[in-house]
Amino acid sequence: MSEMLGKGLNTADSDAMNTTPYAAVVTPNAANIEVNAPLLRNITSPADVKAMPAVQLKELCREIRTTLLNYGHAHGGHIGSNLGMVEATVALHRVFDSPHDRIVFDVSHQSYVHKMLTGRALSYLEPQHFNDVTGFTNPAESEHDQFVLGHTGTSISLACGIAKTRNAEISATGTSSIGNVVAVIGDGSLSSGVAFEGLNNAAEQGGNLIVIFNDNEMSIAGDFGGMYGPLARLRASGGTAQPNIFNAFGLDYRYVEAGNDVDALIKAFEEVRDIDHPVVVHIHTLKGAGYEGKTNTVDAAHQQLQHTTATDKAEGIPSTNNVLHDEPWHSDHCNLSDHEPHEGQCEASHWQNPDASLGKPEDPRKYYGKMAMAALEPRFASEPGLVVISPATPGSNGITHEFRERAGAHYVDTGITESHAVAFAAGIARAGGTPVVATTASFFQRAYDQFFQEMSLNRSRVTVLDFLGGLSGSDNTHSGAYDLAMFANIPQVTMLVPTSGRDFLDDLAWATLPANAENAPTGSVVIRVPGEGVLAAERDATLRPITGAQTAASQPVDSVFSDMLSWRINQSGSQVAILGLGNTYPLAERAAAALQSEHGITATVIDPRQCTSLDTDALESLRKNHALVITLEDGQLEGGWGEKVTSYYANHWQHSESALNPRVLNFGATKEFTDRVPLAELNKRYGLTVDNIVSAVNR
Amino acid sequence: MSEMLGKGLNTADSDAMNTTPYAAVVTPNAANIEVNAPLLRNITSPADVKAMPAVQLKELCREIRTTLLNYGHAHGGHIGSNLGMVEATVALHRVFDSPHDRIVFDVSHQSYVHKMLTGRALSYLEPQHFNDVTGFTNPAESEHDQFVLGHTGTSISLACGIAKTRNAEISATGTSSIGNVVAVIGDGSLSSGVAFEGLNNAAEQGGNLIVIFNDNEMSIAGDFGGMYGPLARLRASGGTAQPNIFNAFGLDYRYVEAGNDVDALIKAFEEVRDIDHPVVVHIHTLKGAGYEGKTNTVDAAHQQLQHTTATDKAEGIPSTNNVLHDEPWHSDHCNLSDHEPHEGQCEASHWQNPDASLGKPEDPRKYYGKMAMAALEPRFASEPGLVVISPATPGSNGITHEFRERAGAHYVDTGITESHAVAFAAGIARAGGTPVVATTASFFQRAYDQFFQEMSLNRSRVTVLDFLGGLSGSDNTHSGAYDLAMFANIPQVTMLVPTSGRDFLDDLAWATLPANAENAPTGSVVIRVPGEGVLAAERDATLRPITGAQTAASQPVDSVFSDMLSWRINQSGSQVAILGLGNTYPLAERAAAALQSEHGITATVIDPRQCTSLDTDALESLRKNHALVITLEDGQLEGGWGEKVTSYYANHWQHSESALNPRVLNFGATKEFTDRVPLAELNKRYGLTVDNIVSAVNR
């Protein structure tokens, strides 16, 4: 799906451009190049967009597009969806009166243009200001931003709430400080259940509410779902064909084919401004519009846009292969540092890494994700029921395009539907299949009820691959610091926290054993995919365990699985025991080494391997000669794992002289949201450092 | 909406009946009356349904309906949805071949008839066997049951999973142990987001999948949502009108107007049996069909059914006022002991209490729910933005029909949409309104991500009324034992656990203060509605606090709110401190009284009032002369509250001679699912008894 930026692009003429030729901004020094964008530079608020002569709007769009492209190469970001939304965002601010009119951007990664037009243009124009703004709307930045949002599908519900309050004020007083309420949502986001809930409630509520449906025919890795066929027919018919899903939810509907034509959009938006009932304005846009692709000029893109929307469509060529597919920001570069929000198409232009990051080693999500897929793939031939399920986030988790092609029916992209994905997996398990559901920790929050009900209560043999769990430098909407509190407190869930690639593969092999296999788990297994701490230790020989603990290459994968839940005591010592859960295990090793070298203490070092049950034998064994037990975890302490260890000793107090009741100290994260704080800084903030642990022992 | 059981009912002739006249089974001794149902009694498996002469099927339906009515009066249950599904269930087992064909009942409370036909008829016929089966499908009971389900909307996703595995087996081996896959879902359930996610994935997947859409025009309190208008037009057109929402999801579609005509249903099901692609069979049924209403015979109901489906419809009378609305199982009897699942219409016949329960005191949900609504209602006139939101579960939480009528736009039923409801509330808060979202604790699991993102991360001033939180005798799918681990570990959430009606009102008043009011909370507030433990203490003078703690009537509601988060030390003692959270606070009082009388210990007694932050002043004050601190909570210990107290002392160890490091003992629930275990038994199991606490002190 998607992909209309056709072959004509590379034939374009760059002479016509009055902006920096795009070829220049792809150089490695791109970050140092300032874009010449005189119109954009002068925009300090939406009033400037309104005041601009109409004839200049196309030029403004060209400047914005150039700015986005430059920014993408230099800084990285969700460039594709923003490129598609350039004209629509200009039109929104031309027609509507933010902040009196309220614009809610779904998932909000497509708000860069909005930010440029609401006083933040310099944050995209000048490298020294690139980090002044976040990648999502943020009320702390601007009165024009409604919410911090990084998960899909809630904009309609949020807009309903704003509109509801406006309606109530008008009923009570005849007036309101709030005018039009506009939700902007993409076709990828629309697969989220909550978006349908919102659509279903919008018509029921009534009153002014404008849903801009940004249809770029792309989700992260293609649009998946039965509704996209009828949507394509809707587009092909110019918005007249039935069934029309928006009508089916009782909503009024308009269609704008020329979704990258600023004049057409202005006209359409003017027609619905101040409308007295909910309406969907379906705009057909081109994600990644202007990306250099096989051309090297922004102007060529603009020419192509005109061509595509005006000519190709008329010629009945709605969709051809997208040349962006082979570009450097395609799947292999949709990654990691991103905490990939849900919308858009990764393969094409969903997330762009800065050029400077190219060629760097793979991040843990991709590294271990590929490792897992490589382990599962050979089994497909003999295990028809083995299925990998991704709720629309494959690329960033190492589920490559190539793997998916080879996997065929063994891979399912369910769209952005974590709830469905987990219930679907439970159905597969009920039928005797072996489902593996993979996505990012914070997105799994969407499936919390299905984890409880369909998965755990039913003891469904579902394997969950939990990516980006634990601490990271993530933004606040995608942090994995809460995953353990979410998963590990659900009854009947087993959550594994491997500390090496080898353990990870062992855990995956065990979790996906056939139900009738010896030692197979009796229910669901969540595997937290290792993060930076583990991967760094695996890559750097100087960080390897001093205790003889196993690492990736040291041993073959287990084939017996007789003892997957007992803790691994890698070094037996005295006085102090350090229990390092998951990603903090390498830190436990290093702290033990420091205690040895600096204080002559041989600490006991334990890799608990899982966090859903306590190994009471191990805990009891520590009573003999350990006065202090230290727990380390790279997630929130409250509701987390260390507290369970503390509570164990507190509630199993020994009154004999010979058995100690060790003190327990817990190290982990504070209950808070953090926004793009580097991991090293978080570790320091939470005391997850060798120095801090050593000094705690000596207090 | 709904309601087709017309005025003709009370004119029917009971002479034609060969079953017990319905008048007989409404007597108080109903539970002792066995139904004469010779056909049903002889059915031991679906094979018997298939073997039955076709002419007997209507008689079988009549017997089943009589049995359901008797069972409803004697035992209580989700009678309404089952009455509507009598013919459809008989037809399903006549046409399909369970368990080779797999039937997944959404939310599964409409599975009583299915249970009768799959070897469990005696559990509905004979009072001594009424408790042999659960109220939901349960694989532990029968190979014909696919899942334990009590939350709505997941049947399509689950069925997709089963079908996917069958498809894979057929691809690999040419055959499968699984035949047709059938999902049965109601129109109320269809408002759940996950149901739309399932629909969207069904067509994408392809292969045999049959969705029986049981459209009885009712949810729990009416169908709410824009899709219900087009659905009504679809019915009125005999299934031909567009927009057709199922077509919009890419699905094939059939319509059966006569959804209570067993022959018509058999014909329709036979037509789709072994179909090679997903199809929706939309059947128009009558919820509560056969309920005595204004008549008194089952036969009259049957006559009416025939009339309604054959004649009234032809006369263009699709929907009249439902006489069931005024019946004794209407809203005031939709309650409490139920843990009300999501589907069906409470007001009409969603949940029926046994006759024996009539006239008993209100349960805590209704009691405190009504109290909250009574406190909010007078504010509506002056606070246009104050809105109570219920995701389709008003009646059981004391949000009465009468209140809703009076509340007008201040009350919104969003349909069965917890995710939308919470995001909608965040939108209201963003616009300056005051949203109060109310539903049952376990249903709030559906909104976990919205609690994290839209609510907490955005510091939206949303008030959440958390009903049935904590321990209860609930079934396993509706237990509130996990609510604290869910809410209280989310950053920036304040969770209050009032211990009296007076505190509850204080908490509600504080949470809903205008944003600019002095001492207003800066973000979201979850209030756990008090449960049995607190209500019992409020009702029974002998259980009132000995320490002088406040109860409902003792003081006016706070108007200062200067100190809502500090713990309340109701009795200052020594040696032992007992911290009783929420519903366990009365137990703390009683244990302290026992320690005083039996051991002469004056314990410190603390009501923490909230569970999201520790009152470190209070904790530090205990160091002076308390060697033991006891925490009580009526929910899961893991991820819960007591562990936070334990960890506080462990991590704030005092090295001075004068400050004790008290031992902490935590009492609360094990991490497990429990199914209909009486509260008193759970309390005993978890050591939440006076005797156990007193003996722990003396160990």
Automatic annotation (TrEMBL), chains A, B:
It is an enzyme of class 2 (transferase). Residues 366-537 form the Transketolase-like pyrimidine-binding domain. Pathway: Metabolic intermediate biosynthesis; 1-deoxy-D-xylulose 5-phosphate biosynthesis; 1-deoxy-D-xylulose 5-phosphate from D-glyceraldehyde 3-phosphate and pyruvate: step 1/1. Residues 339-361 are annotated as: Disordered. InterPro entries: Dxylulose-5-P_synthase, THDP-binding, Transketo_C/PFOR_II, Transketolase-like_Pyr-bd, Transketolase_C, Transketolase_CS. Pfam families: DXP_synthase_N, Transket_pyr, Transketolase_C. Keywords: DNA-binding, Isoprene biosynthesis, Magnesium, Metal-binding, Thiamine biosynthesis, Thiamine pyrophosphate, Transferase. GO terms for molecular function: 1-deoxy-D-xylulose-5-phosphate synthase activity; DNA binding. SUPFAM superfamilies: Thiamin diphosphate-binding fold (THDP-binding), TK C-terminal domain-like. The keyword Magnesium applies. Its cofactor is thiamine diphosphate; Mg(2+). Its EC number is 2.2.1.7. PANTHER family: 1-D-DEOXYXYLULOSE 5-PHOSPHATE SYNTHASE-RELATED, 1-DEOXY-D-XYLULOSE-5-PHOSPHATE SYNTHASE. Homodimer. Belongs to the transketolase family. DXPS subfamily. This is 1-deoxy-D-xylulose-5-phosphate synthase. It comes from Bifidobacterium saguini.
